[in-house]
Amino acid sequence: MQYNDNRVIRVLAIIKNNLRMEENFTPERRIKELFISGVKKLFLVVVALITYWQLYEYITEKPIIDITIEESTIINSNYKTTIIVENGSQSITSDDVIDEINIILSDTIKQIKAVESKIQPQYQINEKSIKLNFSLLNKNEQFKFYVFSNSRPEIKSVNYRIKDIREINFYDFKNKPKPLKRILNIWIISIIIFLILFIDALLVISKDKGLNEIKSFILNFQLGKNNKKEFIKGYKKIYGKYKLRLKPSKKFMKGIINNLFISFPLKTERDVEFIKFMANLKTEPYIFYRTRTAFIVISPIAFLISILALLGNYYYYEIDFIRKSISINSLNKIVLNLILVLVLIIIIFPRSTMNILLLKKNAKHKF
Fold it and tell me: Fewest CB atoms less than 10 Å from the CB: which of 119, 139, 170, 309?
């Protein structure tokens, strides 16, 4: 009981001290603190957006056309097969086409029946090949036609030369792409990255004892005008014992604390309290404590999303209602956008995110 009473007294003393320091802040000091915090968050947001844009370009860098052979039906001993042509890239005009799309099939084509649409392409048949000619095919537009043959046809190859179109994918309802070709490498990379960030968050939290010792030193040091050097030397020593990987050097942090005394000369007790507050304030951000530890929450979520995206790519051609309702590129872009939103929330609101998702009740760490 005595132990709990002492703990309550210490907590109340810390709260009272923090409130007193808050009251002593001048508007100028508040603006300076907010500016420093804002610049660091802005830097992380810019890095996140650049990374996102690079990954987005990786997903969408190959403008593509998809040609799909659907399930066949037998009519009077002939196979009636539906072929769908969909443009997943930028609009294509007749001026962009150097050599028309030429689909080479496995069986001789007896007849083609076009399905009425606003595109109305022209078809040229030559035994086992079909040449397609159209005046305009906008992005996300498609057209389809029926092929009649003695057996169910398969696509052997697709020949073409179209401006800015790097690839034409063809998909057969029966002969699906090989499993490894269905997996987008970006999600494997994402899984590895978020696993590393999760491990890093665990390691940072496991070193909280060292960080608390730094805070305790700053709070309990009897700082005055004549012992600034002792404070800086003591801070450097206790910071050096903080065994955390990927942190600023002792020399760098010593310079940061030294600059505080240059910027804010010790004249009153309020200045002493402000220096101590800023020393604590600068220690956490320079090791990116809140952002790094926030990945203890965000990494499992992003890891799970990446796993689902990987499985979605792998089984995309196995689940017809998904394949017919959304393109594989659109699916990957939606997942990438979702991860971006989660990362930006963590960067901008690290404390709130941790408190809401993990540490709101019975929190052991104060972020």
Answer: 139
